[in-house]
Amino acid sequence: MTHRLHRPEDLRRLVHAMILAAGWTEAEAQETAEHLVLANLSGHDSHGVGMIPLYFQSLADGNLKPDAKGRIRTEAPPFLIIDGAVALGQPNARNAVDRACAIARDQGVAIVNLLDSHHIGRIGHYAEVAAAAGLVSFFWVNVAGRPPIVAPYGAREARFGTNPHAIGVPVPSGDPLILDFATSRMAHGKARVALNKGEPVPPGYIIDGQGRPTTDPRHVFAQGLTGDETLGALLPFGDHKGAGLSLIAELLSAGLMGAARIDEKPEKSWIINSLFGVVIDPARLEPDERLRRRRIDSYLAFVHAAAPQDPAQPVLVPGEKERQMRAARAEIGIPLDDETWSQIVAAAARHGIDAERYGS
Asked: What is d(CA 158, CA 31) in angstroms, rounded to the nearest whole number?
């Protein structure tokens, strides 16, 4: 399938205009647009502007409401618990993480639980936010409001969401380390990108509704099923390791506090995330910043010096690939396949916006 290149600033303006037209505030529109376009710039198209049609479908179904706002349930440092009220996810989660960072700077550590937010986007984004504040962070997220889509190890049907984890470590002398991964072998959104492009996924990533291996991404989308077919599943990464991490993410982020879980009956088209996080001030662990810098830098130099299997592909540490992609796409543009762009155009049109005016 063909694609078009779009300038990042054009996509930011388009998403900003769409969010405003749908009834959200200027601040919410700005945060959402920045988040989604940064995901595309980073190479994570599964969590970029292609999510907007799904958000707007949730809006049309009455599951996502512009007047919904998260509210603090408990703020007793170091603990912070926020009821997300199924509000727009990117501003919801950014508020929770910013508050947690403020607590961590004051107390040395913060433990945050955002409950029942609408889809909060790329989890690594929040690790970057904490790292920019000089803080170490760990985040676990569940995915509810939709049918299970990831099979436990050894199972032929799904029981988990993609339940991502993210860890951020600030590096005093440079860019932070950002580890961000789904507990499935591929994010559901990456399967959506493959479906929109009309491309197969790699072998070993998906099983169909009968538990058979397949490379056809339609098997993990209800709208892709035909006849009496049943929904298939993504497979966990690392077999029992990814499956175990997924189970833990479900319990930590949602299960302990009674937030929406993946095993509860889904309603219409929403995506609900709950986030559990720990944010730490590394200065409480080692007050001497020069020592922290020296220790981190020396180990990163050791890792980078490993002989690569392919001399043309040097060894990278977490976060470097995304930063390289951002530099490249900032220059050449963000590619959107025709199907994804047509979905965005249709969603914009329903709110009186001509998306083609923002095309490159």
From this structure: 33
| Distances 106 to 99, 146, 198, 286 between C-alpha atoms, Å | 11, 38, 50, 16
User: What is the C-alpha to C-alpha distance for residues 190 and 187, in angstroms, rounded to an integer?
Assistant: 5
User: Strand runs (DSSP E) across the chain, as ranges?
Assistant: 3-6, 71-76, 79-83, 109-118, 136-144, 165-171, 174-181, 206-207, 213-214, 233-234, 272-280, 334-337
Decide if 160 contacts 183 (C-beta within 8 A): yes
Token reading at 109:
């550590």
The domain at 1-60+323-360 falls in which architecture?
Answer: Orthogonal Bundle (1.10)
- Domains of the chain, by residue range, sit at 1-60+323-360, 289-317
Q: Which amino acid is at 81?
A: I
pTM of the model: 0.93
- Torsion, Cα of 262, 267, 268, 273 (10° steps): -40
The answer to whether residue 268 scores a pLDDT higher than 70 is no
- Identify the pLDDT of residue 261: 94
- Alpha carbon distance 64, 325 (integer Å): 32
